[in-house]
């Protein structure tokens, strides 16, 4: 039987995502609701190793639900990948009487925490916070909805100028190993083609599509490219198309880090709020070494190993829709 | 066996919702993709009775996926509720060789179409477009995601002034019989209390909550009220609180019709795109007198009667979360 | 000759306005740049009387330039209107060795500060922060640009639904004694008529205009009403129009306090930054009992009395443009 | 004496800018207000040469005031730079009885029109539409306010992630020969340094500034770079800083074409509305071969030659403010 949990610490780690603050707020307030002490660790595993933590109360997290980024800051730590680093972290936590950990982050974060749990058996739980939505075991990760809307808002602006000049734009969105943002921002942005890491698109296929729609009187076009596509990045693809297809004046925009920031959408705030409460309730019910997820609208707890061993399926149905609509 | 469908007409009806244009676009392009002729009827049933329809092509719906409102316009028709009105509509449709109808709207729209189907047996299918998200048979209706984000964006702005002045704001959001927008914009807006039509909240309970958080050092507060609440509208509730609880300076804002407009979110555009394609594919596979829905991420076709006979359940779990976080 | 200024205090007062934080930041950093100590007073004159002030440094105002509201909070103080209140405030300031005051607010704020200056001869300077843009002596006040854009953004959303339903909307914007927000959001929103406090519009004139444009094939219309119009508020005007003119289905939206919040525009941030620096530079050059203003793009210092004695002229030229464009 | 003007044509040319549609609308409606016929030419000089023009009425420009881009489309034309091209254009215009031209664009557009006027003496007038705000003879060009706000909105999002990770970001904004967007988005974005084409900044100076603020406890920083800076583009500058200064993790974002699109701000819509009316009123009062401008809030008409011969002064005062605030 697990000994009673009295003091919990929460931290954010890896790439920041909009909604992380909403998750921190939920973890803090749920802890207080259940009469536990709650601490915040700064800069993820780095702060853990450097003993950089502070006690939080309900007001510490007032007025942050709407803010992008993370008030606890984030970092990637090389030291925590070593046994010594983890030992150091454990000693600091023990000295402060921390009984359990809540991590908000992506798969790198989970890997570290899983190892830590195996070594020290301190109860740990993870909340998926990453704009990429690339984790098995949850339908949505925190930040994905906001990032996709940010991408779509940028695509809408670029469409204005594409339309005015009868141009072809290649727009690169985030998602190194995952085409999720590309697929959904592509459909929502009315893209003529969407290029994702999970599926190969040849330059021939792309030019054929562009030509088919041009013959169908389309005067301007957008192609959305996920940053990690096999056919190259947006600049490379655009260059190849340009050399062989001159119907359009061709331009490239790389959206970059602005996709990470901004006030989270209602969806990400509610998701983060639910997951934050679920993390604390899970911990108190004995869940450990698991990730909180949402599947078919319901909270679930999945083993880290499952989460990390499986790839998320690509949305074949969404790609089919995208093709029907690009005529 | 249904005779082959060759000519389809699409219309929007009832209160407009962001994403209706994306649904029109998807219906039009999917029809063309499947080699059908597609017509647009203006102003819903009114235009049907007045024979106000026009042939559409793939370019007719270019550059509308991002626009609020509906290019086909909408209206509420008294005449279509009469047998004569529906007979007139049928004659016009027949004269134009229309074989099937796609309606985008809410429950009023469906009721009319169901009657029309029972009388004339013309294949019909509905797409749920309403910001209220109050239809059984689908997890989400088109427009709900956008409207909730619009409400949250307004709440964020009001929070700035509430915080600066240590004030209490009552914010009325849309949802005459449904607390969906209120619940989710309330959680996302960090509201101290959420008042919905489906559940009674007494002034005593409300004041107790306000006082509890004030004692917990909260300096300003937001209460989100759905327009159809049993305890009265936002003005009435605010007045009653004001008379009995003077800790805060109290203000009221009624968000009103701005919740209906604006560029749709990615979610509403993708949902509308999927449902628009599904409506055409359903029709062509023999579905009729049904509403397209999305349940657990998958497209479903539900009988109108089921859709209209059942009330959507309130999100008890969401309300529970809201209470834990408002401390 | 003025004795050297060493310690300056800054506060915000009256209705909050977006950009106040940018002004606070500029005042703080300019003070430090010129080697002065800088203090923040909370809740305006109330905090002054209650001795609620704190020393600030360059990092105290990091990451606030983009935030609506005011980190120093604001309030309206009855006590400061009394001699005793001001005496109390002066004693606290003296005890903390404060040599000069910078106020950010509107005309109520200035009136109080002018009296304080006359009584105690402590150097004081004002920065105009109010969304109403109703102060003589400056072309723009901080917050006006943001509030007008917020109003226009809301009008755009309402237009979507007005267009879809062929409706007439009355939209009430802020500006109790000033039609500035109404005029400019009305022109930018494509309003058919704009009703402001400074000019009478009869219901006859309004109906005539509506009818003229309807005959000219206009299918939906927006009327923007400043909250303090002589012809009544938006609800009253709409009611009168409705009774006599039935061409349109008529609706009303009152934008309310959401116009006060939100991230400030670049214009308000730059204006606030310039004015904040100018306030400190003015004080150090011996300016006192003046308001910082901007006229024809240049910083000016105008006597309070001039600022408060003159009314800002209405923009006759803008109204003329509005009429030409509403056809 | 000029013969009476009866038929006017309007077109947009060069890079598109938000607010061009508002200017088109104003030109069209003012023409009709003054009982003139008004035509729209598509794709600027290209459409003129290809005789691609259409008669417009008050309703042709309904519901476009809020849209980015230009409904008349834009293009750059090589042929119009030749005598033959201009002769062809003139013949088409004459055949359609066009008496006067209104151009909306930047300096390239003006150069062409000036030559055309010298050759054919047809009355012509220009409206400055370009996001760069780089034209002498007007304080503001249409599109600049919107583009700067778009840049600031992106910078705000990037700040969220910069803050979370203690990073240094280089953000490249538009303005090939003009630092206007960079200066004002830099001040509004709280940038530690702003690099513009008009002024040299050495890598040494930049590193010194970064180091000074870092010693002053600044944990993350933003540098805004105009695309045409003498010290290189954002990628090159970032690379040089990275090699010599390792305190921060350094990233680059190039905002690109999204700065051209989006719904125009109230300021750009009102400016465009005023300039559109002024263009028609100017033409009808005999102004020709001039650009409409706004100086100190008043409409002016300046000779093209003056406009094109003078460079706009850089905002030295703004740069001074930027330096004071970056501490």
UniProtKB/TrEMBL annotation, chains A, B, C, D:
Any one cellular-component term (Gene Ontology) = 6-phosphofructokinase complex
> Recorded E.C. number(s)?
2.7.1.11
> Where's the Phosphofructokinase domain?
7-282
Q: Which residues bind substrate?
A: 130-132, 167, 174-176, 227, 251, 257-260
Which residues catalyse the reaction? Answer: 132
Please list the residues that bind ADP: 25-29, 159, 218-220
Binding-site residues for Mg(2+), renumbered to this chain:
107
> Pathway it acts in?
Carbohydrate degradation; glycolysis; D-glyceraldehyde 3-phosphate and glycerone phosphate from D-glucose: step 3/4
Subcellular location(s): the record lists: Cytoplasm
Q: Principal place where this protein is found?
A: cytoplasm
| Keywords noted in UniProt | Allosteric enzyme, ATP-binding, Cytoplasm, Glycolysis, Kinase, Magnesium, Metal-binding, Nucleotide-binding, Transferase
Report the record's Gene Ontology biological process terms: canonical glycolysis; fructose 1,6-bisphosphate metabolic process; fructose 6-phosphate metabolic process
| Cofactors that this protein relies on | Mg(2+)
Question: For ATP, which residues are the binding ones?
Answer: 15, 76-77, 106-109
Q: How is its activity regulated?
A: Allosterically activated by ADP and other diphosphonucleosides, and allosterically inhibited by phosphoenolpyruvate.
GO molecular function per UniProt: 6-phosphofructokinase activity; AMP binding; ATP binding; fructose-6-phosphate binding; identical protein binding; metal ion binding; monosaccharide binding
Which Pfam families does the protein's record reference? PFK
Q: Please give the catalytic activity noted in the UniProt record.
A: beta-D-fructose 6-phosphate + ATP = beta-D-fructose 1,6-bisphosphate + ADP + H(+)
Q: Which family does it belong to?
A: Belongs to the phosphofructokinase type A (PFKA) family. ATP-dependent PFK group I subfamily. Prokaryotic clade 'B1' sub-subfamily.
> What does the function comment of this entry state?
Catalyzes the phosphorylation of D-fructose 6-phosphate to fructose 1,6-bisphosphate by ATP, the first committing step of glycolysis.
- Self-association and partners: Homotetramer.
Q: What is this protein called?
A: ATP-dependent 6-phosphofructokinase
- Where does this protein come from, organism-wise? Fulvivirga sedimenti
Q: Cite the source lineage.
A: Bacteria, Pseudomonadati, Bacteroidota, Cytophagia, Cytophagales
